[in-house]
Amino acid sequence: MGNIKIFGPILNGVLAFPIFLAVLSDMANAGYPTPVEADWIAHDFVFHTGEVFPSLRIHYTTVGKSSGLPVLLLHGTYGSGKNFLSATFADLLFGPGQPLDAETYFIIMPDGLGCGGSSKPSDGLRTSFPRYNYLDMVNAQHLLVTEGLGIKHLRLILGNSMGGMHTWLWGVTFPDTMDALVPQASQPTAMASRNWMLRRMQVEMVIQDPAYMGGNYTVQPPSLKLANVFFGIATSGGTLAWQAMAPTSELADKLVDARLAGAGPADANDWAYQWTSSKDYNPSAGNGLERITAPVLAINSADDERNPPESGLEAAALQRVKNARLFLIPASVDTRGHGTTGNATFWKNQLATFLLSLPTSGGLYK
Question: pLDDT digit string (tens) for 62-76?
Answer without folding.
Answer: 999 999 999 999 999
